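User: quick one, fold this
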Amino acid sequence: MTTILVVDDRPANRQFVLSLLGYFGYRLLEAADGIEALQTVRDEHPDLVITDISMPRMDGYQFALHLRADPLVPAPRIIFLTATYFEAEARALAQACGVSRYITKPVEPQVLLETIDAVLAEPPAPPGERPRPDEKLIDRYVRLMAAKLRRHMSGLEVVTRSDERTPERTARLESANADLQAEIVRRQQAEEALRHANIRLSEQVVRDPLTGLFNRRYLEESLEREVARAKRSGTPLGIMMIDIDHFKRINDTFGHAAGDEVLVAVSRCMHSMTRVEDILCRYGGEEFVLVMTAAALDTIRERAEMLREGVRQLKIMFDGHHVGHVTISVGIAVHPDHGETGPQAMEAADVALYRAKQSGRNRTMVASAARN
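Assistant:
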């Protein structure tokens, strides 16, 4: 899963970009300035950083230079954000810093998405091939930006003083402000429509259409991330392989529509008993996977028993008929005890599930030996 870090000292600006990208399945991080962003890059290794150029404590271009100078940190691709009146300087500054692209503010959603796609398609430069920044050029353009900002602020002060003395100018300013507000409303409506469309699109990609749970693709993308996070934090990661017992018999007796009703009911039951941070997926057919972060074996075993008992108590009806008691079998494995990688831990959980099936079903089994 692609990780994107958004850096801006203004929370509203960060939230706009984060909200827009949140519907496309990216893993998102945020920072308020360059210093915080440097630490986040070292800890999380994002694939892409979208950063404002001008910020307190450490500007975006200074952040980019620090990354380029550190050979031990995998350098992410970078996109600069800049005010429109700094566009010429931002273009030159990005080139001098070895930055991939720049975007002017206010950010157009479609421009941002297209720029991100283009930048992510570019291979990151290996540490030994990072371009050396042109410090003289950087200093020149920073000075030009500072001078232009002073002129811009001075111009605003002149306009403000003039407005105070000129009713006609004040009226024109109020009219322009009304037009601006109307344009903001139109843009917000368009962005809201785009967000809803993107929600529907992203849900189709990562959700199982029948149960509404995450699908196998999402599991495969997120498991590697969760294992890496568990290694960094030194916490265990629990994996459950869950299978509905005698599911074929349900299909053969009541039909596949009844089988679908069972899948939906079991999914809802298990989802109601999971934590917010857990990842519950339909792995395929009647099989499910639950990933539990920062959970010890006793906690995972207790949760598995809750799921098993909750499903056992379901009374599932289809077409006026009770489909019979439904039960599940569960296999448990814990990273790193039963596997150093996500696939190894899943394999250990699958073996434990097979043992649960062989032992009579409707029970929970824990992986008995590490599979490294």
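User: anything notable?
Assistant: Confidence is low (pLDDT under 50) at residues 155-165.
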